[in-house]
Amino acid sequence: MGNRFKGKTAFVTGGSRGIGRAIVEQFANEGANVAIIDVNEEALKEADQELNEKGYSVYTKVASVTDREEIETAMKDVYETFGSIDILVNNAGVIRDNLLFKMTDEDWLTVMDVHLKGAFYASRAAQAYMTKNNYGRIINISSTSALGNRGQANYSTAKAGLQGLTKTLAIELGRFGITANAVAPGFIETDMTKATAERIGIPFEDLIKASVSQIPVGRSGKPEDIANAILFFADERSSFVSGQVLYVAGGPRN
What is the pTM of this model? Predict the structure, then answer.
């Protein structure tokens, strides 16, 4: 256990599983107070229990990023519990993959709401506390799909939108000591990529092999790879890095 984030509070949306859970664990390992909101009540309870058993300082709440009041209430609770909100990671996400001609209005709106409305609500709520403290780190989870990906018109659009939001937040909030950056994962082994394998009708192991064959470093990504990048942007020593998109994909991206 380190102390890099001792005294800091990290608020992670969708932090009960996968990449979000790895991010929470890394922050907790480095001494941060961690707050998780998620709609998955079962996974959230499990995360809360395991983190508490390890002696970490944790706040959990069932809340949807698409509900402004739930976000603002959770943010207020976290601030009153820990005394600050220093780091926000907009990680919550969903997929509703399909080819354009098969994609429903609901498929489109669900993905837009979770990724874009959710990041907007959470960022707006968090900056109210960060600006008062003249310090903050906002980190959005984008994706290599932002560059375009078959069957993901909704997801690709949302993830590209998060990059635009990131750069705008960096411009608007920089004078308050707040940086905004984005991490864009490539192929990461998570429940979400398992769902992709199911959608296209192949075993997950085959999807991993096919993906690895296209990755220069010769392996698939793990949630911890993304968490490591998040912690770089969250560090106090990264104060001169803002408005950037870091592709964590095992090789170059545009």
Answer: 0.96
